[in-house]
Amino acid sequence: MGDDSEWLKLPVDQKCEHKLWKARLNGYEESLKIFQKIRDEKSPEWSKFLGLIKKFVTDSNAVVQLKGLEAALVYVENAHVAGKTTGEVVSGVVSKVFNQPKAKAKELGIEICLMYIEIEKGETVQEELLKGLDNKNPKIIVACIETLRKALSEFGSKIILLKPIIKVLPKLFESRDKGVRDEAKLIAVEIYRWIRDVLRPPLQNINSVQLKELEEEWVKLPTGAPKPTRFLRSQQELQAKLEQQQSAGGDAEGGGDDGDEVPQIDAYELLEAVEILSKLPKDFYDKIEAKKWQERKEALEAVEVLVKNPKLEAGDYADLVKALKKVVGKDTNVMLVALAAKCLTGLAVGLRKKFGQYAGHVVPTILEKFKEKKPQVVQALQEAIDAIFLTTTLQNISEDVLAVMDNKNPTIKQQTSLFIARSFRHCTASTLPKSLLKPFCAGLLKHINDSAPEVRDAAFEALGTALKVVGEKAVNPFLVDVDKLKLDRIKECSEKVELVHGKKAGLAAEKKEFKPVPGRTASSGAAGDKDTKDISVPKPGPLKKAPATKAGGPPKKGKPSAPGGAGSTGNKSKKGLETKEIVEPELSIEVCEEKASAVLPATCIQLLDSSNWKERLACMEEFQKAVELMDRTEMPCQALVRMLAKKPGWKETNFQVMQMKLHIVALIAQKGNFSKTSAQIVLDGLVDKIGDVKCGNNAKEAMTAIAEACMLPWTAEQVMSMAFSQKNPKNQSETLNWLSNAIKEFGFSGLNVKAFISNVKTALAATNPAVRTSAITLLGVMYLYVGPSLRMFFEDEKPALLSQIDAEFEKMQGQSPPAPTRGISKHSTSGTDEGEDGDEPDDGGNDVVDLLPRTEISDKITSELVSKIGDKNWKIRKEGLDEVAGIINEAKFIQPNIGELPTALKGRLNDSNKILVQQTLTILQQLAVAMGPNIKQHVKNLGIPIITVLGDSKNNVRAAALATVNAWAEQTGMKEWLEGEDLSEELKRENPFLRQELLGWLAEKLPTLRSTPTDLILCVPHLYSCLEDRNGDVRKKAQDALPFFMMHLGYEKMAKATGKLKPTSKDQVLAMLEKAKANMPAKPAAPAKATSKPMGGSAPAKFQPASAPVEDSVSSTVELKPDPKKAKALGVSSKAKSAQGKKVPSKTSLKEDEDKSGPIFIVVPNGKEQRIKDEKGLKVLKWNFTTPRDEYIEQLKTQMSSCVAKWLQDEMFHSDFQHHNKALAVMVDHLESEKEGVIGCLDLILKWLTLRFFDTNTSVLMKALEYLKLLFTLLSEEEYHLTENEASSFIPYLILKVGEPKDVIRKDVRAILNRMCLVYPASKMFPFIMEGTKSKNSKQRAECLEELGCLVESYGMNVCQPTPGKALKEIAIHIGDRDNTVRNAALNTIVTVYNVHGDQVFKLIGTLSEKDMSMLEERIKRSAKRPSAAPIKQIEEKPQRTQSISSNANMLRKGPAEDMSSKLNQARSMSGHPEAAQMVRREFQLDLDEIENDNGTVQCEMPELVQHKLDDIFEPVLIPEPKIRAVSPHFDDMHSNTASTINFIISQVASGDINTSIQALTQIDEVLRQEDKAEAMSGHIDQFLIATFMQLRLIYNTHMADEKLEKDEIIKLYSCIIGNMISLFQIESLAREASTGVLKDLMHGLITLMLDSRIEDLEEGQQVIRSVNLLVVKVLEKSDQTNILSALLVLLQDSLLATASSPKFSELVMKCLWRMVRLLPDTINSINLDRILLDIHIFMKVFPKEKLKQCKSEFPIRTLKTLLHTLCKLKGPKILDHLTMIDNKNESELEAHLCRMMKHSMDQSGSKSDKETEKGASRIDEKSSKAKVNDFLAEIFKKIGSKENTKEGLAELYEYKKKYSDADIEPFLKNSSQFFQSYVERGLRVIEMEREGKGRIPSSTGISSQVEVTCVPAPTSTVSSIANTNGEEVGPSVYLERLKILRQRCGLDNTKQEDRPPLTSLLSKPAVPTVASSTDMLHSKLSQLRESREQHQHSDLDSNQSHSSGNMTTSSSSTANIDDLKKRLERIKSSRK
């Protein structure tokens, strides 16, 4: 019991897995109870058992297993998730249940299998059961067969696929087990019940006894069509309706199945193909040409035997067909003709669709052979042509058949009509569209009037068949003129006709072949299956009735009634009305007078011909009143117009009377029943007056009214012929103008294009220019409706005229024709006048092509030409091809019959000479255009070989082949290509080029198709092998094509097709399929459904009108033009329809209408950020493509679904461009009202717009650009900034459009680019535009270059990314472009840069070829201006950029970076709008001060606003206030109001307006001075410094150059800047935040300022320069030491590299470095040595020792040595551990240098190194022995004597004397010369003066005297040269010599003294070599600086030496002076204030 209680406590699922059988039994019982209780099929409970169900059925204990099976059955029946378990459970049932002895278990097992089938898992179940048939256990096999039989019996052959079962049947019949054989027999009987005789051929080889038994069983079966008794879940509602459907639609489901199954399980498919070509007798081709008929007969008999094989293998049968055709056509022996016909029949039957390519050749021959009378020949020919018809389509052979119909031989006419009748029987409404029916009916109508009765009978039969197939409505328009007797005869024939498809007439017409009807749940299991064409659905019934009730005349099929309640009438109704009206007889004048007098006042009639015009006028007024009051029915229109035409009639001379007359005609036409008879009376007069200045308008009104009454087509034709039969050009031009307008108002339907065109041609040839202009305008209007094919009619016009016509067409391009506004109500046509059943555009397009006169060229394709093309000599072959090209060119449009040409050209496609291959491809392209849609019939024999050429190894040949294939596909549609095995055979070839090109082509074409032939599945196995191809490109293309195959075939079929793959491959492919499933696009038809959900089942009726001649090729010029107009009426019509749609409750349509009122964009919190994250994490595809693949579109659709209104999304992703226009219009309307939403979805909106850029429709593009302009204006108003993600997924695609051929588009794109700079930094735009310059499109290159120029002009050189040098070099490349506009654009851009930057341009662009350089120089000479105001704008770009670096601000809505001053935006927008761009730029340059003052006034208020914020600057930091606007989540605490305020103020620091800048600086100073607030600046330092040095640059470049500016202003600005900086750099924590790059730029700016000679000339200039000195010291001391040291090194490197940089600049940089070197001992620990050594390494790499030695000055090399030496001294050998950042240290000069130094310093004496380490402090004790003292002094004197270290020595001596005042230095001096002694004394004196602050410090300011810096002997502690005397005693003569040289250098010789230039500027940079002196230098007074030059001339040398000598001495003096320094500093500060 213990055990029991254990498991009893377990939860159910654990019991089910327990090892005790009792526990499991209990678990299964409990599960069963649970399953029965769960009501909701989607309950989560079900999922818990997912993994257990397999265990339920495979339990090892038989008793338990039974219970498990029961539970499993309930689970499968009720659980939503059960489908997931199908595979494992069914295989479990097969292996573990079917072998059980218990019958109950087997029954349950079978029941479970059937239940899985019911829940739509039939394929998986069937797969498992078929696997079970391979089991060794016969019990299992029997059970599997039984299950399959039951499934077939219950669900029918649509669900259970018979083909795989039939294939295994013969094997089952051979089984040794009787049970299996018996079961096989039962299933064979069941299968026979469903497919009848189709089963016979596959079973013909089984045992004869078994076959006999089967035959007996088969006979017993009932003959009725079987019906399924059990339905899938998705069809179960059908069960209830089955009865009513049977009565209504004739056996709906059963019939559907029956009809469907025949093609589905086709005996043909079950047969093995036989290869016969190789079995032909070897001498066949000789024998067939033999003279003896017996030999020919033998040859034919051999073929006859071979073609009896029911299925033949595909191959090249061209020669065989040609031979047979020859026999049929030419052989005199009729017996052989019949035999050859039989052979052709056999071929056609055996090859089926594969024979299609030969059909076109054979059909005309057979038809013409019908002249034979012998019955057996006729019968053979009939069989042949019928068999051939089944291999092709009526469309393909229509041309040939129609040609034969005009034959004079009655037998041929009769047989052709009979053939047409038989052909029609195989058609459905969709395969027999109007465009095809029209010519056939025309031909047959001639035959019904034929003299021969048999011809008439045959024609009646054909017309009757057509009537039966497509219904009366479609045929009646063609039978208008047929008399009643004949009409009755046709109808009688129609009733007798038995259609092949066995459908009731008219119903078939509702279906489209291969088109599953959306919204149709009725079609049982075939939901995804292609062959729904025969399922009759009961909907059309009500559909047809609805409009009929409202409209006069037969309604249009499948067209919704128009919203106004008026139904829609078809052509018939129009025709009907016309015929009624034409009937009105012409009345005599007497009758007319009588009728008129009955309704008009008597006086009126009397005065009509009065000679007094006033009386006539009065009469007309009465006439008008009478007409206005008349009732329509009473108005005798003809009588009234006759009265008006009565003398003087239209010759009336008084214009007032005439105007009235014309007005009355219009009134009569509007108000009465106006007939064509009446119209004819007045039209002549109207046309005569149309050109009249005064009466013309009235005449036009009257004509319009008549057109409304009598239909425009008729009126227009009359008017045109009248106008052109007279001479008056004014009348002609006005008539044309009226017609242009009328077409727009009435629409284009029904107009006779041909008649117009001849009139238009006459007009174009007119001498009067007005007539020509009007004609061209009319052509423009016609172009809107007809499209580009209109141009074909005018190709032979003169070039000048043609160019005018082209210009007119260009204007019209992209516009859509306006909706007709007239001609509707009168004849109750539907909302659009555009055509019957929506196929008017097709008529417009196709008819135009049909109207073209096509030339017959077959006679020109002679056998000589053909043999030329096939000649061995390539030159002759080329001649032949040239001739063909000539023939086609000459003919322009040709008939499809081109004789032997296809075979000849086909041979050339694999010509060894590639040039000929290309030429052939070009000819084939021409051929496609010339032949038009008729080229279809050549697809198989010529099109497929073109595809083979795609495998060529040469790229250009492949490209040509692809272009040709596309040209063909454009004409033929895709269906022809996809039918049959040809395409799959091509894909089978293992040629990587062929595969990738073909797959690429399919991936492009398949998504555009609504349906595809079933043969597409044949390509799938080869597609899978491509997925695993060795070639990467093939694999990629195969993956790309996968979703499109799946879109047409469905996932299930694709997955099933993997069954034949190896297991490893299968897994891989299945994984890819899963992935593709996610990206699978919807079929193109779907949008139509989506737009009008509520229409449910009726959607197709609206969007694919039943009889529209869309055939199956989507590309057949139907662009669904009427849709948009119908869509307008969607709301109403959808409601009207839903009632008829039956399945759909009409509630939905109401709901839909309500939906549209809500917001279109839904704000999803964090939505955008999440999307960006997903993209970064590669969870979704990165928006990056050359053309948008479907997976991108699908992804966008998915992302949009959560944040865009459903109905808008449907519009946005509709396949029809009109819907995109609609979506854009809606988006424009909602732009202002939904700012939040727009910004929340901005990334998606922009992505969607990029997709629109890839559309070809211009109107969408224009709309999209319009929207973008508004959008970016809104964003800049909202101060939004684009995120990087938004920018990178949008800008590149926008830039593509800048290369559009249309001007207006380019202009818009440029405008948008300009506006974008307001929401995205120009500097970041720059690289995108730069990328655009690499395009192949020259227009794009040119526009991008111009845009770059504009950016530089607007924002200065800072926008050039990555560096100005690189950018300009890339731009300069384009100067050599082969396109003139690109060259010009590049030159202009560089001139723009030149205008901003001057001559430095030449250095930046690097070396150019001579030609390019000369072009550039010439252009600069011609058009350059002086560098001017650009930098003002330059600043405006910069702060924005720097800020966005400072934080993630650019993600924010109104974060720090966005708070730009409104001034910036104004200034930006001035520079940004392209419209004003040119003007504004001029003004900026000419009138700078004016504009600045203007800005000033605008801005006065700004700082006050900010000031207000400043008062409480800290509150927001303590309590962050939420913004009113919802901001993105990146807005963290740091970016509270304080931060944005500071950002805003900093952005103003860089303002071009001095006052703005000063006020901003003052505010920042206020913050910096208060210790508690200064912290707020943290995080903004770099930003502030950047703004500052930009302002410095602005002053330097612009303000200083501006004469009109007050210089005091500039000084004030300078002092503010410097004051601010000093305050900043006193706060160490903030100063350390400055980064290297910023410090480098800052130092650059400050040093440049110190060197600015213009400053010195100003009153306060010296003071400024002193302050800068002080500031520089602060910067050096307080900044992060690593950063500043690094910055100085980089700056030095740059200044030495820049040839333009002055030597003084480098010098001052080095002085700063010396200063840093002296600070090193204190700062060494805080420095990142690795980084510094890396910088030095880079420096040494750029400047190796040799290069440095070549410098004019020796300072750089010394500076470097000193720095390194100091570092060595301070760090010792450890220094070598800090080379980590250097990549290849062994090669580094630095490491070697350091090693040498280390070695050297080791050699120095202990005390020496000690002394130096301690910053040169002499540690010599007073107690130290005299010897040591002497040594020390000797060392000092040696230094003084050495050339390099003289200064150092003097400084050390001074320090020594000061410390040991009693020390005796006499002994050392007395040996030396007098000169040396005085030199030493003078040196000490100078040092003393300097230390005491009395001396003049040379480098203290920018105005010091001329110290030649080059003569400073040694900067700092350069020890390396100490030993240069090698311990020898140096004689005095040497010193003297040296001194002379030094004096010479320093200008101490009086002769040189005056000539030297003042070196003020030389030293005006803060190079500060020593601590004490430099501090003094920075604080020294102006008076000291002005002391006379003479006094110190001689001390130059010494003072300079003393500068550096201090470096080796103690720092005591400097510390002693610190107090003094502080006082001075205060003084300077106060004076500055």
Please give a structural write-up.
The structure is a single chain. The protein has 2033 residues and is mainly α. 66% of the residues lie in helices and 0% in strands. Helix 73 (1322-1332) runs antiparallel to helix 74 (1338-1355). The longest helix has 30 residues, at 103-132. About 20% of the residues have low confidence.
Topology:
Elements: H1 2-8, H2 12-16, H3 21-37, H4 44-48, H5 53-57, H6 62-78, H7 86-97, H8 103-132, H9 138-155, H10 162-173, H11 178-195, H12 200-203, H13 208-220, H14 236-249, H15 252-264, H16 267-270, H17 284-287, H18 293-307, H19 318-330, H20 334-351, H21 356-369, H22 375-391, H23 394-405, H24 410-425, H25 434-448, H26 453-470, H27 472-475, H28 484-496, H29 507-510, H30 540-550, H31 571-582, H32 589-599, H33 602-607, H34 613-629, H35 637-645, H36 655-671, H37 676-689, H38 696-710, H39 712-725, H40 729-746, H41 753-764, H42 769-786, H43 799-812, H44 840-851, H45 863-869, H46 874-891, H47 901-909, H48 914-931, H49 939-949, H50 955-972, H51 975-978, H52 982-988, H53 992-1005, H54 1020-1027, H55 1032-1049, H56 1051-1056, H57 1063-1079, H58 1086-1091, H59 1099-1103, H60 1122-1128, H61 1130-1141, H62 1147-1155, H63 1167-1176, H64 1190-1201, H65 1206-1212, H66 1217-1229, H67 1235-1240, H68 1242-1253, H69 1258-1277, H70 1284-1288, H71 1291-1297, H72 1303-1316, H73 1322-1332, H74 1338-1355, H75 1364-1373, H76 1380-1397, H77 1400-1405, H78 1410-1423, H79 1430-1446, H80 1462-1472, ...
Helix pairs in contact: 3-6, 6-8, 7-8, 8-9, 9-11, 10-11, 11-13, 18-20, 19-20, 19-21, 20-22, 21-22, 21-23, 22-24, 23-24, 23-25, 24-26, 25-26, 26-28, 32-35, 34-36, 35-36, 35-37, 36-38, 37-38, 37-39, 38-39, 38-40, 39-40, 39-41, 40-42, 41-42, 42-43, 45-46, 46-48, 47-49, 48-50, 49-50, 53-55, 54-55, ...
